[in-house]
Amino acid sequence: MRTRLIIDTDPGVDDAFAIALAALSDDVDLLGVTTVFGNVPLSATTRNASRLLALCGRDDVPVAAGAARPLVHRHPREAGYVHGLDGLSGRAASLPEPSRELEPVDAVTLLANLLDAAEGPVTIAPIGPLTNIAALLAAHPRCAEKIDRLVIMGGAIGHGNSTAAAEFNIWSDPEAAHRVLAGGEVPCVLVPMDLTYRCAVSAEWLSTLAATGPVGAALEALTPDYLDHYRKALGWDGIVVHDAVAVAEAIRPGTLRTERAPVAVECSQGPGRGATIADLRRRELREETGTAEAPSAGIAVDAELDKLRDFLFERLSRHEN
């Protein structure tokens, strides 16, 4: 069964792997890619998304630029220290120039148009800040019925990475994240960094991927700055392909084991800003405290790690569409 998929993204090295995963999968109808600020400014994320599609031979996929800043408060810090100043370890210019122009409409309009035109339910994989998705649900509420589910890379149930409490994507626009996750309009699967860290791949895995062909080699070449960061974060030679884990679940539902729980996002200006609060208490206790009927999301908690890595490798080593 083919998956109708839209990716909303802020490339980003792990976004690069996620976009390639979808673009190279013959069981995916990649309807479009929309971009958002995040790891680097919107101009760079948009350029990176178009170049990555060109790398994969997918100039048929429309790209539209979206939000350049959060809904309410300005973005306090980009992630150039992780991804490099251009988002791709300083190597974005090594990717091919796209032959397709950007869409003449904004990301929210493209999302609404693609959903309206789709012949069946569409999965959206938001793998950056949730600003575009919050705006879509607010401005085009009719679109909710065409969304099969949102598979969101973001959040942290334990400790964060941007702060002690918050993961980068959610921390970048907590108000938008709360609107999407606690709004209840669309089924959500949240893929938090607690799980994605466990799905990390080694430098040896990357080298083996590079040897499979031009796409694998190009992806591996984008990782030096990212690899340097994750040597510190992991304590060993590897990277965390956060966004590719979420897109794997979007393509093949059930790749990740999930548990349903009410989810909220801390939107205060205190040290907990951007924290993802999942109520993992037993339902009986939630009922007793009056929170059992709160909107919930599927929280990805586990995966068959070797099987997942094999799936990523097999798809990313493909050369033809």
UniProtKB/TrEMBL annotation:
According to the record, the signal peptide region is none
MF terms from GO for this chain are: purine nucleosidase activity
GO CC terms of this entry: cytosol
Question: Keyword Cell inner membrane: yes or no?
Answer: no
**Which keywords label this protein?**
Hydrolase
Does the record's keyword annotation contain Hydrolase? Answer: yes
What is this protein's name? Pyrimidine-specific ribonucleoside hydrolase
Biological processes per GO annotation: purine nucleoside catabolic process
